[in-house]
Amino acid sequence: MTHRDDVFVAGGQPSVTYVQREEEHIERSFARAVATPNQIVSLSGPTKTGKTVLCRRILGDRQYVWIDGGQVRTSDEFWDKVAGELNIPLEREVTKGGETSFEIEGSVPLVTTASGSKLFSRSVTERQRIASMSSALATMLDQRIMLVIDDFHYLDDEVRTTIMRNVKGAVFTGLKVILLSVSHRVFDAIKAESELTGRFTAITLPNWSKADLAQIPRLGFTELKVPVPDALITKLCDEAQESPFLMQKFCWEICFDNQIEEASLFSKNKIAPSYSVDDMLRRVSNDAGLPIYQKLSAGPQIRKARAKRPLKDGGTADIYQAILLALAATGPKALVPYDELRQELNNLLVEQVPQKHEITSALKHLAVLAREFGKGAAIDWNDDTREVNIVDPYLRFYLRWQVRKP
Length: 406
Ligand SMILES: Nc1ncnc2c1ncn2[C@@H]1O[C@H](COP(=O)(O)OP(=O)(O)OP(=O)(O)O)[C@@H](O)[C@H]1O
Ligand SMILES: [Mg+2]
Fold this sequence. Notes:
The chain has helices at residues 4-7, 26-35, 51-59, 75-85, 117-142, 157-172, 185-193, 210-223, 230-239, 244-257, 277-298, 319-329, 338-348, 356-373, 393-403; strands at residues 40-44, 64-68, 92-96, 99-103, 110-112, 146-150, 177-181, 200-204, 309-310, 316-317, 335-337, 379-382, 387-390. With 406 residues, it is α/β, with parallel strands linked by helices.
């Protein structure tokens, strides 16, 4: 019988609760893009919207090499990794009678002598790199193995461009390359630089609708034979911040708290009438959003202490804390217009609402801090539309349950 851990999978590959998102035709368009010859497929979408899950699902048991952008720093490392995944032997170092020789299996051994070692060993490494890259490409082409680079945005600009130049030729002769990234901006840059315009099929994952999110508890609780009132599902959808990850997490927590492990034949599984969903949400929000919130509320490092302003509810807040409180007070919404933010600051602070330039400067700093913190920006300030975008669902969730005044 299926265990709750295999039903609600937060952070892994769900099967029972996998949602196809049919209305958006996402699976079909992605599958079509992957099938189209001589194209590099890019899949972008906000963090935790299901890029990795969708890609693994569509690839099924086809052959691919999967590289995580977060785990390689240089293009050399990248090709070594690809070669490693393909079991292509790397250079071997063997010492024979005082001479060190580097051998690449299947090719001519290259010998270094004590006198010329430095220069020569560099060229050996060079040759070995090229060997690992070209044999990797040849193997993938020959055996029809695809190349997937997940979290592509984690790589440096330069590394991304180099890798794209490296694969360009192979793509034209049939290599399939799939790139996953939180932002489509990285692809625009590459297309321009590596003359790959017209060779990209870009797929963007839209945000999750409440109807799609609702499928997760419906599928999962049905599997576990747990009756769930519609009102509860609606509430979970309202609180999931468009994130399937959060929805999976909520459902798992509900099971755990109610001792639901596996489907029971005697319909013993149920959610206690006294069960507090709010308590669960508060607890989960703390785990999910605390690190980024702490980083943002501390503001950029400065030597002297920042001015504190008194709050109507008591206590004080510096400009960063005040802005986060004001954003939380909007709901928080994912997009907060400047005027609304200012209005909320007015409602919060006893007097002296910060000046316009002070607020916008703090917003810009917040965006920089957010970018430093992790992949993509958790929060962003758009100077043209004059809107704050709280991109990260976890941050919104944290602001909603931990920061917003009840
Ligand atoms: N189609 C889906 N159906 C049900 N749950 C899903 C689906 N897609 C994603 N999820 C849930 O969301 C979680 C995050 O998905 P995934 O890791 O694919 O997101 P991502 O966009 O790759 O995130 P990141 O930006 O961190 O790489 C999954 O572990 C799963 O719990
Ligand atoms: Mg991913």
